[in-house]
Amino acid sequence: MIKTTTLLVLILSLLGTQKALSQFETTGSDDFGRIFDLTYDTTVPNKIYAVTLGNHIVVSEDNGTSWDLLYSLLVGQGASIRDLRLTPDATGLSFAAYAPGSTNSAIMIYDIQSETIIKNFPLPNQSSFAYPTSYRFYEGSTDVLLLDTNFPQGVSTEGKTYYTANGGDQWNEIYYTNNYDTVFINDVAINPADPNTLYLSRGNGSTDVDGGLFISNDAGQTWTETLEGIILDPITFNPEDAQHFWVGTGISFGATEENLYVSEDGGSTFSTADISWTEGILNSINVITYNEANPSQLIVLEENEIAISEDGGTTWQNIVYPDENPESYYYGLNASYNPQNSEEILISANYIPLVSSDGGVTLSWLKSPYFVSTGTMDLFRNETETHLYYGVQFGFVHRDVSTGVDTPYDIVPLNIFSNNPGQTQYADKQTAGRVYTFTSSFLGSNLMLSNDHGATKIQLENIFTNFFTAVASFPESPDKILTAFAGFQPSETKLQHIDFSDVNNIVITDLVLPELDIINAISIDGSGKIVLPIGISVYTSEDEGATWTNSSTGLEVLTANDLIFDIQRDPLNSSNYALASSKGIFISEDGGENWERKTTSLVYTVAFSTETEGAMAAATYSSQFSEYALHYSTDGGENWDTLTNTELLGIAANNTEFYFDETSVRAYIGSYDVGLVEYTIDLTTLNNEDFTNTEASFIMYPNPASDQVSIQLKNESIHTVTLFSVTGEKVMELRSINTLNISELAQGIYVVRVTTDSNKTYFKKLLVH
Description:
Blueprint: E1 7-12, E2 19-26, E3 36-40, E4 48-51, E5 56-60, E6 68-72, E7 80-86, E8 92-98, E9 106-111, E10 116-122, E11 131-138, E12 141-153, E13 156-164, E14 172-176, E15 185-190, E16 198-202, E17 213-216, E18 224-226, E19 232-238, E20 241-249, E21 260-263, E22 271-272, E23 285-290, E24 298-302, E25 305-309, E26 317-320, E27 332-338, E28 341-349, E29 353-356, E30 364-365, E31 377-381, E32 386-392, E33 395-400, E34 405-409, E35 424-427, E36 435-439, E37 445-450, E38 458-463, E39 467-474, E40 477-486, E41 494-499, E42 507-510, E43 523-524, E44 530-534, E45 537-541, E46 549-550, E47 564-569, E48 577-581, E49 584-588, E50 596-597, E51 605-608, E52 616-620, E53 629-633, E54 641-643, E55 653-660, E56 664-671, E57 676-682, E58 698-701, E59 708-713, E60 718-725, E61 730-735, E62 739-741, E63 748-756, E64 761-768
Antiparallel strand pairs: 1-2, 2-57, 3-4, 4-5, 5-6, 7-8, 8-9, 9-10, 11-12, 12-13, 13-14, 15-16, 16-17, 17-18, 19-20, 20-21, 21-22, 23-24, 24-25, 25-26, 27-28, 28-29, 29-30, 31-32, 32-33, 33-34, 35-36, 36-37, 37-38, 39-40, 40-41, 41-42, 43-44, 44-45, 45-46, 47-48, 48-49, 49-50, 51-52, 52-53, ...
């Protein structure tokens, strides 16, 4: 079953009364979902929190059957959320915000009730581009935090550990790798009954000294060492006895005998658990977790085995997973017991999330729609069929849009790694079911043709090149195509004419280009006219590429550092073309001969509506220079509105396809961590919204307003209405009402959030004057 997350956002144009109603959904196949740090809420039954491979926290209210996006971390490109856990009082979620190569890394606390970040601990050494490696809050106060960090130093890495007792106002550096034989810290802990008693488990260093457990009784001013020379990692306390804790050995590659150590006197003495570990590659204990609701239950996650105790660690059952199966258990990362059912355990593993209903003895895959969308995306549409092809795990999924059925092809198992960029696939725009796929290797690259969405293939070309960048078929001769290939240098660009009308005698012709630079798109109209962007120039040909005419008038602003990324012809007016470039969108109204610049910022793809004249859409992808954004126009590209990355919930992506109907455009987005996203923008201009428009599910009027605002939902009942200021502060919350008294609000823009009884959520912007 495909799960969806729906978020409706109304963008109010301050230039007039135009409104764009937008819908955000995650609709990718749940056969590829990868979420981590799965954690049960201790007060709400069957509520689970988890993190994606990127910058999102997700939540399930039904024990993992369906999922919603809960929180987006917006601290720059490449940011991710790690080490998610409940705060000691269970009212919030703490996590490490990791922003590589920046000074934005921090430890944060998200308050579940208010749905806001209530505490932010910037790293004390953030100017060194540090990042958090482990952290722990004191059980009695989230003002007390023990934090380990690593940071680059030249070509090497160093580590520093800090302690604060006053919410980060003052930090004490209590450990520095260079002062302790360059030994790094693997895990940190604070004694649950004493904020001044700290524990550091040590790993490897660059000298002959490794391992050991450091214990301090004075908040890190002085240390004593025990378990000397033993490489250690996870530390876990008995929730009923602060003197009773466990420590597991870490990755040592044979330098340390694998053991699970237990102390019942605060670390003065230790004994080992009676567990016979099997031989693996890393032989590391990764996680030790108590069932807080029943502390007699413990679970230990090792590289290739799980150890379970039902009597507080006196006896153990060991379940071994001898093979590295990417669809089963391998290298556990986190475990969480269901407070309502002690036999139910969530396990985050290296490849997939797992759930057990028998105390950890057997496991099954807990699925979700959140994954990394790799490769390219393409869309085919005609009068009767619509097919979407989106990348995942170096292969792709074909979706029959009319039925919603997803079929995967060429999927690579998660434990197979390759330096190759993966597979590229494009849908033919003329022939339903026809897909071109391209894979590269040192032995040559293969361009394949499928006429059944990818189920079977024939080879069109074997070529020594790295990338397949564009393809287009001739409308009057659909078995003839132009294909563009690229290498790592502009001189490696190739354009080929391929005729496969006789698949037993495929004719390939290398075309002579007027210049050599990357080709990112090809447009061929019904007369056979080719419009071809090469680097920063546009060329046209009327003789299938035998001769070329430079048609770059108006593009002079583009320089050698720029690039044209896309070019499209208006299906409703053959004289109109649009191109997307590093310096914005350009429009031609004379068949691609002359161009006029309409926007100035980086745009990667652009599209004309197939249904409504003047409607257009475009996207800016995630890159070193840009955040993902959507753009739309209703007047042929003269004016554009933008949905920013914040309004798009902080997603990152590098591919987008657009599907237009008469009143809206649906953007299919292959995101980096929440899978396939569909974002629908209503392009209609509504001066007086009413239910005669079947798309109007949420009506709020009048808007702008000064005294009262009425809210109506189509076929829905209102549960909660919440108003937020533009800074995110909650200013009003009411239940089961449809009229808001706003007479006491200051003038300005507010966000109105409406939650329905069926748990749908709608947003609109309200202008109070």
